[in-house]
User: Fold this.
Amino acid sequence: MVVEAIGALILSIQFYGKYDLLDSIWYGIFHSISAFNNAGFSLFPNSLEGFQDDTISLFTIGILVILGGLGYFVLIEIYENRKMPKRYSIHTKIMIYGTIFLIVVGIILFLSIEWNNPKTFGGMSFYEKLINAFFLSVNFRTSGFNSIDIGSLKESSLFFSTLFMMTGAGQGSTAGGMKITTVAILVITVIFILKDSNQEPNIFERTIDQKLINKALAIILSSSFFVLLATLILVETQKFPFLKILFEVASAFGTVGLSTGNGDILSFSQQFDTFGKSVIIVMMLAGRLGVFGFGLILIGQSKAKHFKYPKGRIII
Assistant:
């Protein structure tokens, strides 16, 4: 509530230049809550496309989205150990470094791809390109606000954005996706395997438990399977371009809410029939419940067994 109140105050002051006092206060409160909770809903017909040159509004909403995406445990730990950062837990360190890394990579990618695109960044100044690339990078992973027309992005931007949406933000946060810590654990493990290290996978002088590695692998494989299966079903039943459907499915699974649009103010899913919309709804539920919760509903829980099979040799 403290974070949302500060955000609402800043946004209300900014909106007051375009709207009357009561509307500005209402818009400020609504967008602050929507941003911190990574909802991405806006009261404006074209989201925040009318604020491309409003640095304070875009930056404030971006910071609110980041804080909500870090998760409450991380925020509390940062506050309690604000004078002694060395005491941060491994989870908090991974979340902070992972968030910064993904935001910077996103900014670089979108700037390099969209720099001369006349429909997106082409007509902007350098500073406007930078702040809008930052806003894109933040909202693609977690929230769903947009300051440019998503349908005008190049195909390469749409493809990379699906990876950001699948990754999401932090565990125990207001965001969806597979979570940064999940992806980080698997990336660290892969690096140690490729290095053929004699050490168990570790980071910040802490060993990563094998059960966590197994869980991360299960989450990423299951999530990828659900998204690709839903995409295949929709491509065959709805007869729309593959990349736009993949984007819509990844956005639904990551509970992001971004869409390439239907050519007007509605989302791309508006063009789907009832079956297609049902698939998108299922993907949103799966993303919100989490892979393990959704998998438990589909598969059921395994019964406990009190024996072990002998190890088998498999060549890989």
In short: The radius of gyration is 21 Å. The CA atoms of residues 120 and 149 lie 7 Å apart. The chain is about 60% helix and 0% strand.
